[in-house]
């Protein structure tokens, strides 16, 4: 190689010459590397702080809900959904606000909170849960087709029995008894026999009557 025929002094001169010619590029590269490392660390710190703030806010929200201070809780829920929509706490607060609104008979407010929970859910499990409750709200508001459309596009993740039961409710509301019967049967298959709502689900199925024979 070329360095084999050069003495130590000449090799040193070549190295120094190369460093002088490439000093700017080296400094820029080192600077960019340090900037990326610093930026990554700052981003991680920001994310951790952001999530911690959201968790703290949600803790206060839960305490307010437990004390029945709905007005204070509503303000925190609004903050969570506005400033922390990328965290699960926005969805969880919206679900709890929806439950409270439904308990007070304010179905419009409950639906709005469920829509917010569904829109903000960044985790598939939460999106599925929020979507199932939203579908139930659509059925209660006599919008069964909208409920079916929503159920069809939810992440296929858990809650199989509830999903099938809601499909049955929607089909029954549309007068599509055969499809409702199939959905309820699937729900019973996916539901533990000791579940609290097992008997109620069987009642829904029995209320549909027997399947109609084609051509009769």
Gyration radius over CA: 30 Å
Find the CATH topology of the domain at 51-122: Serine Threonine Protein Phosphatase 5, Tetratricopeptide repeat
> What is the overall number of helices?
9
Q: What is the count of β-strands?
A: 0
Overall CATH class of the domain at 51-122: Mainly Alpha
Going by helix content, strand content and strand pairing, the class is mainly alpha
Topology (elements, then pairings):
Elements: H1 8-66, H2 70-83, H3 88-103, H4 107-120, H5 124-140, H6 144-153, H7 160-173, H8 177-189, H9 198-207
Helix pairs in contact: 1-2, 2-3, 3-4, 4-5, 5-6, 5-7, 6-7, 7-8, 8-9
Explain how this protein is built.
By secondary structure, the chain is mostly helical. Among the domains are: 72 residues, Alpha Horseshoe (Serine Threonine Protein Phosphatase 5, Tetratricopeptide repeat), CATH 1.25.40; 64 residues, Methane Monooxygenase Hydroxylase, Chain G, domain 1 (Up-down Bundle). The chain contains 9 helices and no strands. α4 runs antiparallel to α5 and α6 runs antiparallel to α7. The longest helix has 59 residues. The radius of gyration is 30 Å and the shape is elongated.
Briefly say what this structure is.
By secondary structure, this protein is mostly helical. The protein is 77% helix and 0% strand. The chain is elongated.
């Amino acid at each position: 190689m070329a360095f084999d025929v050069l003495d130590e002094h000449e090799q040193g001169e070549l190295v120094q010459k190369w460093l002088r010619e490439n000093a700017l590029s080296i400094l820029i590269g080192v600077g960019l590397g340090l900037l990326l490392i610093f930026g990554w660390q700052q981003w991680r710190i920001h994310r951790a702080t952001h999530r911690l703030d959201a968790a703290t806010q949600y803790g206060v929200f839960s305490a307010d809900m437990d004390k029945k201070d709905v007005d204070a809780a509503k303000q925190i829920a609004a903050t969570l959904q506005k400033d922390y929509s990328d965290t699960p706490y926005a969805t969880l607060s919206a679900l709890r606000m929806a439950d409270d609104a439904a308990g007070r008979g304010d179905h419009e407010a409950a639906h709005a909170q469920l829509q917010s929970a569904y829109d903000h859910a960044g985790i598939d499990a939460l999106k599925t849960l929020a979507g199932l409750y939203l579908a139930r709200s659509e059925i209660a508001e006599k919008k069964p087709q909208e409920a079916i459309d929503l159920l069809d596009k939810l992440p296929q993740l858990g809650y199989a029995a509830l999903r099938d039961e809601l499909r049955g409710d929607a089909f029954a509301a549309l007068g599509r008894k055969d499809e409702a019967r199939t959905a309820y049967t699937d729900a019973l298959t996916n539901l533990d026999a000791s579940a609290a709502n097992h008997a109620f689900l069987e009642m829904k199925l029995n209320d549909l009557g027997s399947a109609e024979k084609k051509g009769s």
